[in-house]
Design a protein that fits this description.
Order of helices and strands: HHHHHEHEHEHEHEHEHEEHHHHHEHHHHE
Distance between the termini: 15 Å
Shape: flat
Number of helices: 20
Low-confidence stretches: 431-452
Helix content: 55-70%
Strand order of the largest sheet: 3-2-4-1-5-6-7-8
CATH architecture of the largest domain: 3-Layer(aba) Sandwich
CATH superfamily of the largest domain: P-loop containing nucleotide triphosphate hydrolases
CATH topology of the largest domain: Rossmann fold
Number of strands: 10
Number of domains: 3
CATH class of the largest domain: Alpha Beta
Mean pLDDT: 80
Length: 452
């Protein structure tokens, strides 16, 4: 999980500060030494760390902090603000040309994930911006690159333009004419990469750039490469004047140093992040939200956006009406579990304020437990699902036999459902559920649908 190590060390440092009440200069300087070490261990660029710690220290030693009634909170606030500023401050949008089609060049080294993430981005733009994207196969050197693009294009229902192993510059030119004829208003060009930066690669990319005049040149980089990611970004920026960065495999880098360094070193914004292998695992990069995640403050806005993408709006409105009428059923319970499963519970945990997402590092959604729950509920009559209170011992035996489970399994499910009912009752009365009122430690054993 991205920033897991850094987040843990920073929160440990701030916990010490909170325990001191009033802070002295020595307290703050000692805390800043620990922050500096945490950032360096997270593989953040040395100069970036030096400048960051210097600015935070100057601000933290001001009278605003030392004379505050809650100085530790003020220090955390400063670190949060400076982390967000370090990563760019605010989210940056994709550059869209006023002249259609708008062209986006995906560039980067081999293995960074240009092909798959270019397709993911095309899908995101179609979903959020109502665009009609076209994917273009200009990587004519890597074996199966064209096939890979066609495969992900088919999975996402996005058209792919290809001319086989021809001249990438000519393919790029032809794709623009194809887009104009077929009504595609945004074109994503998947370019070739190399294992290292070389002159031949850069010359080809420059020629494609000159031929299609892209509105956006996105440098795609694997976050797990650490400092090498920064060096590659500088090289591509020097040759092509990139307009933005997409960090991939951020979910697999526990350090996150590239995300904290690339903006400061190149001056170019991180616009998107790849957060997993699924074809919808891509997010707009929000520096302020990421800073909050790093400091354990959660990211409720992204959580809401993720929920909106995964939850059927009509179903959600119907469920809300039933909750308000205090009519939450076992069918509703099962629907909610299906939606949580599709969202990814580890992702949700990382966005919840105060939740120990690290405890879910190796957690997997337990398919067997989920399947068992479904089987039990499906073995009930509609009347029983609507009103589980009528389930006596004979009914439970029948349900257990029909679902291939035990009466004990049925009772466990009913207990979980009862807890969820209590939660929905409090919501229907306008009360905030207890889980949102205080910090929660969510880990193994709290959720029956997780396993290690």
């Amino acid at each position: 999980m991205a920033f897991e190590s850094l987040s843990g060390k920073l929160n440990s440092t701030f916990k010490k500060l909170r325990g001191k009440g009033r802070l002295s200069e020595n307290d703050i300087k000692e805390a800043m030494r620990e922050v500096r070490l945490a950032l360096l261990e997270a593989d953040v660029n040395y100069k970036v760390v030096k400048d960051f710690v210097k600015i935070v220290t100057i601000r933290a030693l001001g009278s605003e902090v030392l004379e505050s009634l809650t100085p530790a909170q003020m220090v955390i606030k400063i670190v949060n603000e400076e982390l967000a500023f370090l990563m760019g401050g605010t989210a940056e949008k994709l550059n869209i040309s006023s002249k259609s089609p708008s062209v986006v060049m995906m560039v980067g080294l081999q293995g960074a994930g240009k092909t798959t993430n270019g397709a993911k981005l095309a899908s995101l733009v179609r979903r959020q911006g109502s665009k009609r994207p076209l994917l273009v196969a200009c990587d004519v050197y890597r074996p199966a690159a064209i096939t890979q693009l066609q495969t992900v294009g088919a999975q996402l229902d996005i058209p792919v333009f290809q001319m086989g192993a021809g001249d990438p510059v000519e393919i790029a030119k032809a794709s623009i004419e194809h887009a104009k004829k077929h009504g595609n208003d945004i074109v994503f060009i998947d370019t070739a990469g190399r294992l290292h930066v070389d002159e031949a690669l850069m010359d080809e990319l420059k020629n494609i750039k000159d031929a299609v005049n892209p509105a956006e040149i996105l440098f795609v980089v694997d976050a797990m490469t650490g400092q090498d990611a920064i060096n590659a970004a500088e090289a591509f920026d020097k040759a092509l004047d990139i307009t933005g960065v997409m960090l991939t495999k951020l979910d697999g880098d526990a350090r996150g140093g590239a995300a904290l360094s690339v903006r400061a070193v190149t001056g170019k914004p991180i616009k998107f992040i790849g957060t997993g292998e699924k074809l919808d695992a891509i997010e707009v990069f929000h520096p302020d939200r990421m800073a909050s995640r790093i400091l354990g403050m959660g990211d409720i806005l992204t959580l809401i956006e993720k929920a909106e993408q995964n939850i059927d709006r009509k179903k959600a409105q119907e469920l809300e009406a039933r909750i308000r009428a205090n009519k939450f059923t076992l069918d509703d319970f099962y629907d909610q579990l299906q939606q949580y499963k599709s969202m990814g519970m580890e992702d949700i945990a990382a966005m919840m304020p105060g939740v120990n997402a690290g405890a879910l590092k190796n957690a997997k959604f337990d398919e067997k437990a989920f399947t068992k729950t479904g089987a039990i509920i499906q073995s009930m009559t509609p009347k029983e699902r609507d009103n589980p209170s009528i389930l006596n011992s004979s009914r439970k035996k029948r349900i257990a036999a029909g679902s291939g489970t035990t009466v004990s399994d049925v009772n466990k499910l009913l207990k979980q459902f009862e807890m969820m009912q209590q939660l929905t009752r409090s919501m229907s009365k306008g009360k905030m559920p207890a889980m949102f009122g205080k910090r929660q430690k969510i880990g193994r054993g709290k959720n029956p649908f997780f396993k290690r």
